[in-house]
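Bumping with the actual sequence this time:
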Amino acid sequence: MRWPGHPFIQAVIRECGFPLAAPSANLSGRVSPTNAGHVHKQLGDKISLIVDGGQSQVGIESTVLDLTVSPPQILRPGMIHAESLAAVVKNIQRPTANSQQPKLKSPGLLKKHYAPKAKLLILSWCNDANLKSQIACRKSQIASCRVIAHTHIPSGEYFARVSVMPRAAAAFARAIYAELHRCDAEDAAFIVIEAPPDLPEWSGIADRLRRAAA
């Protein structure tokens, strides 16, 4: 059960008078849309109507909490993280490797999901030389690489493009899918994303990046 925050879809739900079941507006396994332009790019020739509700205010998919087990279990982490839920539900089971189970209980549990067309790597680095050496070890062309960074920003002279992302988790989440869509639009062959911090508020972001890189 889900109650979205957008007033338009809230009005649709109220008018229907019955439960709605709907998929996300993207091709299976691909990067989720965060605006109407992303939807049109992937599905414009397959659907007859797109309602433009503006830019997504969260950016990544919602947290999924399984209340059919005790204690409740997080199936898919999102921007409402375990510590916030524990303040209300008390005992919480953290996400586990459900992707290995034959029957998945929630969307977003496939090993590979939310993925751009290009190969994606999640790396940590301390300077340009360190980053270049890690890319070279993977036999990838440094000059054609798109780098998405939020803390250690490399020089733009070595890479096809360097995108500077917000350092706050909420702002990063709002921006990351748009950046991956941009890479797809440019037909990028190789993307490096700076590893997110190991902090509760980044858990949902880390989950999406890990699946995008699988």
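The tokens above came from a reply further down the thread. The first strand starts at residue 64 and ends at 66.
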